[in-house]
Amino acid sequence: MTSTRRAFLGYTALAGATVFASAAGLRGLRYPSLQFEPAPTPRSAKHSALDFRADSQGAFYQREDARQLVFRAYVPEPVVQVNGVFELKIGNVHPKARLDIEGDGKVSEERIDGLFRHVTGNSSKGTLTLRWVFPK
């Protein structure tokens, strides 16, 4: 009787180890474990060489290139506020979205390249608000 109980426990432990190993193999062991909340992504940036600042609503800051700051929109109508002489590249903007400009300053150029917008301009001494309006 003792040997059958010992065999039963051994086979049960073997089956449990097999299930655990299969689950670990399919899903993977995570160290450290997954976090519930991801780290916040930046929505504003200042260019280190050209000394202009951009704050966005509806777009994430991705990187700084030699002459521009790069953002990626996550809403259909992103808004970016800039200070200084600027050059921005914003991705994931609808190709037919219209750029509305508010504030002091001017936009000297807006190029459309697929889902990317390349915008250059000068906000004078104040803040220039760039708002892309989704086509109706």
Task: Identify the notable features of this structure and list them briefly.
elongated, five-stranded mixed sheet, five-stranded antiparallel sheet, 136 residues, alpha+beta
Task: Give a verbal description of the structure.
The protein is an alpha+beta fold and 136 residues long. It has a domain at 44-133. Helix content is 19%, strand content 43%. The chain has a 5-stranded antiparallel beta sheet, with no helix packed on it. The chain has a 5-stranded mixed beta sheet with strand order 3-4-6-9-8, with no helix packed on it. The chain is elongated and about 90 Å long.
| Uncertain spans | none
**Separation, N- and C-terminal Cα atoms:** 80 Å
| Structural classification | alpha+beta
What portion of residues is helical? 10-25%
Mean pLDDT: 88
Rg (C-alpha, Å): 27 Å
Strand content: 35-45%
Strand order of the largest sheet: 1-2-5-10-7
Count of runs of 4 or more consecutive helical residues: 1
H/E element sequence: HEEEEEEEEEE
Overall geometry: elongated
Largest sheet: 5 strands, antiparallel
Query: Could you tell me the number of beta strands?
Result: 10
InterPro entries: TAT_signal
